[in-house]
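Tokens in:
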């Protein structure tokens, strides 16, 4: 199907803002989607090219081998792993079929709520305006609501803020005696300043009610390959999720990526360090304009509130696209107070970030000198 024939940039914006991907086809600067621009290296694509016929013509492997491939990458036992067609497939199985009652802090990644049947989700508001998670209040609400699954996205989307590891451990302990699993979505954890001190992967044996979800699209820059996984020492739960995935839920290109990925560990670490460096620079450049209304990021995007009385977040998003061909994400659709005042800005290259900063400050009437 051919791409739409746009008559003007405003029509193009209306189309793009209704889509969930395929942005590369439409020639604009994407500061909305959240992925690592520095990975994978070109050698990965060469590997695909060299095996193109085999990858297209043959069936891929199933869960047992896929779990072993991810297990090798993260140094975990295969029986503790389920590999999904993106984390979205696993979220759909858990939210849509396995959870009786789900509790989610909001604002957060909408898919956990969207995938659940009506009436089975409790939305727990984050502290406002700090957007920090009070794990004690959250645990109390989870227990009072008789939730059997609690979800924490850390770093959170859209706030870009991580929950301290000791808070997550305390939360897991509080929920353990009440039949409540704790899903910790670590899709952006590779961009935290000290990743090894932030991840809960090394805690799963001590806390069997912990289930870690990970979308590989973000950190590994492979949105089109669609790979995600869950990790848990709760083998009964892992099997229940495994029973919900199709026998060939991962294609041959995704399988091949998992096979060769251990050979590119150093490249991956370097790429994440570059992302952090670019993100921190963008934060420092925007901070003088937004002051207390910009949040220190732990992920590869910036969350900030626009000044009261001025342009709204949807208006800024539209103007950036129409006048500067740049696309950011406004938070009007998020469950949060004054969502139409907040934007989420994905960090890109230093040049692109600088251009975006200039465009935002000019549109908002800031002194950019």
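Residues out:
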């Amino acid at each position: 199907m051919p791409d739409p024939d746009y008559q003007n940039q405003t029509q193009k914006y209306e189309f793009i803002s209704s889509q969930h991907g395929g942005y590369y086809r439409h020639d604009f600067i994407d500061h909305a989607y959240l992925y690592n621009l520095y990975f994978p290296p070109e050698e990965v694509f060469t590997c695909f090219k060299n095996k193109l016929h085999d990858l297209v013509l043959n069936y891929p492997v199933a869960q047992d081998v896929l779990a072993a491939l991810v297990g090798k990458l993260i140094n975990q036992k295969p029986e503790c792993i389920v590999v999904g067609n993106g984390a979205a497939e696993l979220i759909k199985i858990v939210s849509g079929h396995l959870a009786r009652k789900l509790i989610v802090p909001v604002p957060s990644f909408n898919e956990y709520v969207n995938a659940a049947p009506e009436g089975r989700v409790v939305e727990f508001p984050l502290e406002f305006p700090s957007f920090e998670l009070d794990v004690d209040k959250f645990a109390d609400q989870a227990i009072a609501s008789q939730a059997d699954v609690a979800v924490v996205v850390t770093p959170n989307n859209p706030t870009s803020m991580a929950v301290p590891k000791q808070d997550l451990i305390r939360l897991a302990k509080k929920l353990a005696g009440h039949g409540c699993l704790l899903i910790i979505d670590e899709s952006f954890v590779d961009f935290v300043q000290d990743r090894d001190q932030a991840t809960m992967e090394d805690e799963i044996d001590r806390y069997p009610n912990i289930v870690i979800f990970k979308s590989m699209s973000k950190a590994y820059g492979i949105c089109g390959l669609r790979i995600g996984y869950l990790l848990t020492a709760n083998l009964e739960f892992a099997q229940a999720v495994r029973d919900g995935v199709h026998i060939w839920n991962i294609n041959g290109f995704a399988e091949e990526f998992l096979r060769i990925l251990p050979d590119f560990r150093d490249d991956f670490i370097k790429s994440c360090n570059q992302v952090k460096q670019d993100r921190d620079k963008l934060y420092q450049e925007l901070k003088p304009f937004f002051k207390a209304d910009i949040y220190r990021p732990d992920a590869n995007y910036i969350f900030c509130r626009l000044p009261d009385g001025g342009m709204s977040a949807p208006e800024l998003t539209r103007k950036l696209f129409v006048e500067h061909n740049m696309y950011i994400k406004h938070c009007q659709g998020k469950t949060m107070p004054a969502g139409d005042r907040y934007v989420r800005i994905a960090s890109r290259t230093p040049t692109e970030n600088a251009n975006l900063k200039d465009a935002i400050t000019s549109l908002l009437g800031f002194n950019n000198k």
